[in-house]
Write a structure and sequence with these properties.
Elements lengths: L1 H39 L9 H9 L6 H8 L40 E6 L2 E6 L4 E2 L4 E2 L2 E9 L13 E7 L5 E4 L3 E5 L2 E10 L3 E9 L2 E9 L8
Parallel strand pairs: 3-11
Antiparallel strand pairs: 1-2, 2-5, 4-5, 5-9, 6-7, 6-10, 8-9, 10-11
């Protein structure tokens, strides 16, 4: 009787041991699965979670709204005067000069021009770009009148101002020089007048010099025989 009871006790202990081992294995597996799941759903900022990786990919400067707008923005080209070419940009009166004396504050409106330069020396340029069309032609070149003003000039004391106007072609060979000038009065005030002859059509840098002052601008000289579109 005692032997049977002993065998029964040993059998119960064995079953309890096996059950404990199975529970322990199951618990280890559950903890392992939980660790994997928690790693995948880690909150933003976690170094190992997908959410953290996504946040770092979308919060960088290359994908910010400002950067996206900058990449998608199309630069607006500066307006180009009609008749301008790839190698010649006729000057506009930028910035506009406003004299305090010696001339009207602005040229008469029908000239469609503005003053350009400084108080020491200024001229009048077309608001659309200085393009010389239909100039009188002769064997020596294309004739043009240039007008200049200076608050240092007194037309009564210096009726023939010591001003010179030179030209340098920008798209080919060619130069010229004319001076001194004379004086001329019109609705734009009393000006220094220098008549010039441009040797050929093309893109020209025109420079006026009066005493220590110098002023340059670019003029596109068109062929007077070329038909206008």
């Amino acid at each position: 009787m005692r032997e049977r009871r002993s065998m029964s006790d040993r059998s119960t202990v064995a079953r309890f041991a096996r059950t404990s081992i199975e529970v322990a294995i199951t618990l280890v597996l559950v903890l392992a699965v939980a660790a994997v799941v928690l790693g995948r759903i880690a909150p933003t900022g976690s170094s190992g979670g997908l959410a953290g990786s996504a946040a770092s990919a979308t919060s960088g400067p290359s994908s910010s709204p400002a950067a996206i707008a900058a990449r998608s923005a199309t630069p607006t080209p500066s307006p180009t005067p009609a008749g301008a070419t790839a190698t010649c940009k006729p000057s506009r009166p930028k910035p506009v000069f406003v004299p305090t004396r010696s001339a009207p504050a602005v040229p008469p409106a029908y000239y469609k021009s503005s003053w350009f330069g400084t108080a020491r020396l200024w001229t009048m340029l077309s608001d659309d770009g200085e393009i010389w069309r239909n100039l009188p032609s002769s064997p020596s070149g294309l004739s043009q009148k240039t007008f200049w003003w200076s608050e240092d000039w007194d037309h009564r004391a210096e009726p023939e101002p010591r001003i010179t106007v030179t030209g340098r072609r920008l798209d080919g060979p060619g130069t010229f020089s004319f001076g001194p000038g004379t004086n001329a009065g019109a609705d734009f005030g009393i000006a220094m007048l220098v008549g010039i002859e441009v040797p050929t059509v093309g893109c020209w840098e025109i420079t006026g010099r009066y005493h220590a002052a110098a002023l340059s601008f670019t003029a596109l000289v068109e062929d007077p025989q070329q038909p206008r579109p």
